[in-house]
Amino acid sequence: MDITIAIDAMGGDHGPHVTVPAALRALKEDEQLNIVLVGLEDTIQAELKSHKATTSPRLRIHHASEVVLMDESPQSAMKNKKDSSMRVAINLTKSGEANACVSAGNTGALMATARFVLKTLPGIERPAIASALPSEKGSTYMLDLGANADCTAEQLLQFAVMGAMLVSCVEHKPNPSIGLLNIGSEDIKGNEVVKRTGELLRESHLNFYGNIEGDDIFKGTTDLVVCDGFVGNVALKTTEGLAHMMGKFLTQEFKKNWLSKLMALCAMPVLKAFKKRLDPRRYNGASFLGLRGVVVKSHGGADAFAFYHAIHVAIEEARNGVLRRITEQLEIEHIQKDTTIAPVTAEN
Amino acid sequence: MDITIAIDAMGGDHGPHVTVPAALRALKEDEQLNIVLVGLEDTIQAELKSHKATTSPRLRIHHASEVVLMDESPQSAMKNKKDSSMRVAINLTKSGEANACVSAGNTGALMATARFVLKTLPGIERPAIASALPSEKGSTYMLDLGANADCTAEQLLQFAVMGAMLVSCVEHKPNPSIGLLNIGSEDIKGNEVVKRTGELLRESHLNFYGNIEGDDIFKGTTDLVVCDGFVGNVALKTTEGLAHMMGKFLTQEFKKNWLSKLMALCAMPVLKAFKKRLDPRRYNGASFLGLRGVVVKSHGGADAFAFYHAIHVAIEEARNGVLRRITEQLEIEHIQKDTTIAPVTAEN
Question: 204-263 in A: which are within 8 Å (CB) of B?
């Protein structure tokens, strides 16, 4: 199935130096993929040239005259940069010229703009951010990772629906298992919101496993982990901090003296294989779920390899109709409060 | 200063096999320490004998006829086991015969019993669980780690007072820095409770650093991290899960083939040094804070080395008057709602 992805070519710490080679790689590996590079035409052309590439029917440039800065406030981006590469990429997704968009731009501005331009799906009160994490069994998806600090049980149920459909589309798992992040496995555990969410999930048609605890994320106990954005963000950042500390300590121990340095040399191939296995670049690409369009956020500091992975997530979501799947599942769960708004367009 | 610690000798997965040798080590290393081993006298005597040790003025046995099981409900332990080693150890702390107690028994029963027997300090609405974690700068203390799933801003402020005094006593830091766990550094970030807690902490006399994020825990940005028990428990368990996965992956990579096994052999001394640095046994000993007595909870699966560390935490808390320090600081912060209850007894 032919898919067109709009890429905010200027977003992220490295802009076209990263987004352009990533796009070229994605085009090479997927013959049914078209890409629209959105941003300053001259800059993008120059980057293409440095890779000995040119535009083609499958690779277009869509000029956008402005760039949202990485530390720019969402308000400023929304108000002052209506022709930013970020906003135009989202516009293309809304108009149907693209099936999805990918940006490494600043998270706040991307979420605010995407929400403003695309609006939320019928039945979804708030969009959420989902991503894959490595686990002992492969990968575990988790949401919300920081879009919503305060959530109701109904919103967490909506997150569960959206996350399950995401896993279904990206991992090709038809009925992914869902864990509710809690502080104990018994139904009576947790705060009031989580207890009520457990009730809603047990009553739903989703594949609800039950409560899980923090260590289950990396054990891979369930395919999906549902939590509010406060808890999800803390858990994610905490693991980043621990991984950083462990990496630092390991390096320090290996650099302690000439003997340990020699040992490091001996063990290098294994250490590299270990590092590769946990390589966060392979998990790059957070999905903004609940919008009337597919939006994938790459890490701002992503390199071309990592950004390519974010493009891949967008392709899978678009190709496997994540928006249609979410809408259908919301109907099954009778979550369809906002019925006055037109259904999702056909391209998804 | 002479200190007496009551040890629930029967608690934990291994009972006296662990608690007795840990007690003997603690006595050897601290000449001003007295220990009361609480539990089945014959069993404890037999264990002492196997270590060629005997009771002495510094090492007494206090017989208790019952044992709280590791999976026993708090209700059952409270109702049916009034002569349990756990409860009697807490009783000795209440009566002043001991300055603190240590148990590796089940967390729920220990918290319920300690709360029932000792009651909370004036001004403290709920006790919290605090522990040290390794960090890039040494160690970071964190609370609450799971006693309270729902917390108010006022309770989080109380946790900050208790945690700061704990760090002050155990780490000998006079004015420890406090970070409020949040999902961004700006004051406007977070959920409503956390935003309000930030206000209270800014108005307090504590050394408030500001908001911190999950990765700051292991960076060691602040001496103490304050959060509700839901977030704290999730963060703690998540790090346990990640550490387990990383350890497993590293082992798998080193065991892949004969060459990688050879590399593992070469690198073994460094890998051991690395493992030692993160050894969770060195951080064993969670403090139950906010009670009218010092209670330290050891991990149930602790070995003698780990349990010894939990005893050490109890000694430091008791010797440096953590209860008095908390009470004084609560007064400074004008948190003294419950003034009808008598002040903390002199031994602390």
Answer: 213-219, 227, 229-231, 233-246, 248-250, 253-254, 256, 259-260, 263
Q: What's the pLDDT at B328?
A: 94
In A, residues 27-56, which contact B (CB 8 Å cutoff)? none
CB nearest to A243's CB, from B242, B256, B260: B242
Are B36 and B118 in contact, with CB atoms under 8 Å apart?
no
ipTM score for this prediction: 0.88
Helical ranges in chain A per DSSP H: 16-29, 41-50, 74-80, 85-95, 107-118, 153-171, 192-203, 214-219, 229-254, 258-277, 304-319, 322-332
Contacts of B260 (CB under 8 A, 6+ apart): A269, A270, A273, B253, B254
Identify the bridge partners of residue B208 per DSSP, sorted by sequence position: B178
Per-residue model confidence as pLDDT tens digits over B251-267: 898 888 888 888 888 88
By Cβ distance, the residue of B235, B253, B270 closest to A253 is: B270
Report d(CA B116, CA A210) in Å as an integer: 31
pTM of the predicted protein model: 0.90
CB count within 10 Å of CB A60 equals 15
Task: Please state the separation of Cα B34 from the chain's center in Å.
Answer: 20
pLDDT at B340: 44
For A250, the closest chain B residue by CA position comes to B274
Supply φ then ψ for residue A156, to 5 degrees.
Answer: -65, -35
Amino acid (1-letter code) at residue B272: K
Give residue for tokens 């994605």.
Answer: A26
